[in-house]
């Protein structure tokens, strides 16, 4: 895993924001912290059923089950792609 700088683009408003992200090759899904979703003004879309979240050691995540996702464009250097990110609590972070 490593920290990288990327550009997060709001799919709806096309507003772009530089953010520090954790690239974790062992993760089974792509997630975004719920605080960053609110701070960036991203539109959340609901899942039909909640997704339970466990930490790597098998214990339940401190946040609630995943109930929403966001659709964004992610740019890392000269690569960009449209992504669906699961909205969850990823612990403490500074989004300023």
From TrEMBL:
InterPro entries in the record: Peptidase_aspartic_dom_sf
A Pfam family recorded for this sequence: Asp_protease_2
Protein's name in the database: Peptidase A2 domain-containing protein
